[in-house]
Amino acid sequence: MSKEVVPDNSCARAEQWLPDYWQDELRSGDRAWLEQHLQTCAECAELAAFWRELGQLPEAEPDPRQRRRFDAMLTAYEATPSRLAWTQAWRMWLRPLPLGLALVLLLAGLGGGWWLHGLGHSAQGQASEIAELREEVQDTRQLVVLSMLQQQSANDRLAGVSYSNRLGPLDPQIMQALLHSLQYDPSPDVRLAALDALQHAGGGGEAAPAVTRGLLEAFPYQNSPLVQVALVDSLLELRPPAARALLQKVSTDHAYSPEVRQRAEWGLTHWQ
Amino acid sequence: MGPNMKTRIIKVYWLTLMLSLAVVPVLVRGQTTSEQSADHNRVVVRLSHPSQPARIRLQMLVGHIRVQGYNGNEVIIEGAGKHTHASGVPEEARGMRRLTQPGGLGADEDNNVVTIHTGFEPENIDLLVPASSAVSLKTLTGNLHVQGVLGELDLESTNGAITLDQVGGSIVAHALNGSITANVVRLDADKPFSFSTLNGRIDVTLPAGMHATLNVRSDQGDVYLDQGFDFKSPAPSSSTSKSESNGMLKLRMDKTIRGTINGGGVEINIRSFNGNILIHKGK
To answer: Domain residues for A232?
Structure first.
């Protein structure tokens, strides 16, 4: 039952509900009301009777002659030849024309664009593009190294240091990150690897003074004798003047383990 | 669709939603149970995601740690007795058996990261972990022994030896005053290996067919490599550069042995100060 507005006028309501009544779709309360109304209202009862009579009319059967007429017409139609006169046929050939024109225009547009594009690009333009791309790739690689150096697991950080070795000349940011690892990384192996990477980069080029300064600053913070020995070695190779005083202090200070002191002493004797 | 049907459907959906919301908090949190028997301290840790590898962390001051990899997905921690130098039973307690006192052994699990806490007393710990776990152990005084774990290993012992057997993945091992003995059966291609000691021998067995790039150095010891390896080393590199201060030529020799095995691959750094380094060829 659809939710239509139920008219207030009871006869109008009865008229509206009659169809549902004939199909047994009324709710029990509504049906009781309707039956009661039909008993009291003469007009509606007449209408209901009229409808009942209509319902009892026999169904109309189709005329058998109509079917035969239709069959005859169908056979006549199928027998006619489908060839058209050539005056009309040529129009059929023109039908796909708009689609074809559209395709041709599209291809022409593409071709024209390509040709113009080729004109605008000289070999020099391409070379500068490649250089830009290379720089972007290098930046991405550096980001990877920086993020790997901050990973939770020592294995990941070690992989980051090893990856930075393949970057070529050290970016100042990477160098700072490696110096930070050298000073503060909890794993001695990562610190050793960071020192190794810095040494490779710091041996020559403009990065050398910064690396040397970083190594000197990192020395007091080391508490692993193995890393201290490696640092003494690097300082002996780089030979910054400030290292001499530091090494003299190390060789006599008993806070450092004997291996470190020995190495510092040996280095000083060879420093002339 | 009549009105009764619609309300029924709404009720069923609502009930399902309430039930699933009630169940979710229980599933998300990892569970730890602590069972205590008369002789052992034992903690069983269930992982939040049993199908994914676990990450296990243990830091101690004093005590040996033994780790065994197995084919399960729970982490089982056992306290294996006090780490004392005194052995034997004192005179007054002869004929009696010593009960292990619960020493505050416990573990936290958060999203497959298991952090193990030990009590105040020095204690030896036995761990049974899934074979694919990543294990991170650190002890000041004590030996570390790991067997059958194929995940990442990060091991550090200041006074004690590190022994590894049937391990793979990626290994970072540092024994300051102790030797490192490792039998590696598998190498992870993307993460480097590193073994370092100050006073100790490093004895490593690596798989025969591996592709590796070696950086090996022993300051006062010797380096030995198994004959069976196809080892190629470029000539020892020396670089010259003009020193800025006095214009003299500075010669620099790289003291580390660098070379490739079977063409190069995984980076393996081995560094010792006072000990020999031996690299064996495994199967």
So the answer is: 136-269
